[in-house]
């Protein structure tokens, strides 16, 4: 993306899928739905003169509805779904000894790609939970379509992401079509969304605040912080704590300060009623190796593992600093966007993914329970070693 902006001759043109979305919206045979990723809401405003970190969630919902989307969903909802599945996986491995530790997050497709090429000795450590983008798509084409008596073949899912790699994720494996349809049909980056808004002629700043559609729209504070480095870890720990103890964290204990901030590698120990969980968070792919090497060294020597749970995001700062976000990113801009997400978390009535009322409903009505047969079929994936160089 940055190359396209800086190419002196204009020979490198940024991929632009905006026209695909215009065509879909004009097609009477398509039932167009849309989802918006956590980090988009605190960065889009920069294209319209708002300071970085301004949370425009409700204006984006209103815009999507004006544009003709029949249902407006939120990736924050499915971030909660990813967390419920992933925290359950963590408990299976950590408490019941079923599966490899440390568990490693897999929701960043650039990281997943890098792992399959370079760090595939960690394949069994990867969470099999799909990313929030894919989970939202598959729920729209199964549960939502069924509930609203819509032909799933007509549901067309547009996804607004901070990320160019999310375009590639749509075709990553056959599991990205687990329902028989592509989970998601097209991805627009935040910059492409800004173009869509400008082309629409709609006065974005004058739009009122509106809510997302039910169901697949409601989110918890844990879902929204997915967009910042450390956020997935923090969200997962809040839920894992509940699964292990049967109690929710309260007060300041809800905020896991040790995994927040822009330091390249963050480490923390979380006390779950006497049991210590050791975690590491790396962002920026250059920071990953040191973390993985610590695990490799411990394995070789048969020593205790340095970590039980690792979060990795390819982009410095996490998705708020993604390759599809408005240009001009500095650490100061990253900090402001991150502050926007943590403010959203603080303001949420519900701070835990497992307490999201729509998440509870979707399990009661459709998925049964985390890691159920149906959840595995629709919400999980697998990984394959794809070494770049053969020895
Ligand atoms: Fe995409 Fe970057 Fe987020 Fe990974 S960290 S999902 S590459 S925006």
UniProtKB/TrEMBL annotation:
Origin superkingdom: Bacteria
Keywords from the named record: 4Fe-4S, Iron, Iron-sulfur, Metal-binding, Repeat
Molecular-function GO term, any one: ferredoxin hydrogenase activity
Presence of the UniProt keyword Transcription regulation in the record: no
Keyword Ribonucleoprotein: no
Parts of the chain that traverse the membrane: none
Name this protein carries in UniProt: NADH-dependent [FeFe] hydrogenase, group A6
């Amino acid at each position: 993306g940055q190359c396209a902006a800086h190419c002196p001759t204009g020979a490198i043109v940024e991929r632009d899928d905006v026209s695909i979305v215009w065509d879909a919206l004009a097609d009477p045979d398509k039932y167009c739905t849309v989802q918006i990723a956590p980090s988009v809401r605190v960065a889009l405003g920069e294209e319209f003169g708002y300071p970085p970190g301004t949370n425009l969630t409700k204006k984006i919902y209103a815009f999507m509805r004006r544009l003709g989307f029949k249902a407006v969903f939120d990736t924050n909802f499915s971030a909660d779904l990813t967390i419920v599945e992933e925290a359950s996986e963590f408990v299976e491995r950590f408490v019941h000894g079923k599966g490899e530790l440390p568990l490693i997050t897999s929701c960043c497709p650039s990281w997943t790609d890098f792992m399959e090429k370079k760090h595939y000795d960690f394949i069994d450590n990867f969470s099999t939970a799909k990313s929030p983008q894919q989970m939202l798509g598959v729920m729209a084409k199964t549960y939502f379509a069924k509930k609203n008596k819509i032909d799933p073949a007509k549901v067309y899912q547009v996804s607004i992401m901070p990320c160019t790699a999310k375009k590639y994720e749509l075709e990553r494996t056959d599991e990205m079509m687990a329902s028989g349809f592509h989970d998601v049909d097209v991805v627009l980056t935040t910059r492409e969304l800004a173009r869509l808004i400008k082309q629409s002629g709609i006065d974005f700043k004058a739009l009122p605040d509106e809510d997302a559609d039910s169901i697949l729209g409601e989110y918890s504070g844990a879902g929204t912080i997915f967009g910042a480095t450390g956020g997935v870890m923090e969200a997962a720990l809040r839920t894992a704590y509940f699964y292990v103890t049967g109690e929710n964290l309260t007060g300041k204990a809800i905020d896991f300060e040790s995994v927040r901030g822009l330091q390249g590698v963050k480490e923390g120990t979380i006390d779950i009623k006497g049991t210590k969980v050791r975690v590491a968070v790396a962002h920026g792919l250059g920071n990953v190796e040191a973390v993985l090497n610590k695990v490799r060294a411990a394995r070789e020597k048969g020593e205790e593992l340095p970590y039980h749970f690792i979060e990795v995001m390819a982009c410095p700062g996490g998705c708020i600093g993604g390759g599809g976000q408005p240009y001009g990113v500095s650490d100061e801009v990253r900090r402001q966007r991150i502050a926007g997400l943590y403010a959203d978390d603080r303001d949420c009535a519900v701070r835990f993914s497992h307490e999201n009322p729509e998440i509870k409903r979707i399990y009661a009505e459709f998925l049964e329970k985390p890691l159920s047969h149906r959840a595995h079929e629709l919400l999980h994936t697998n990984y394959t070693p794809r070494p770049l160089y053969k020895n």
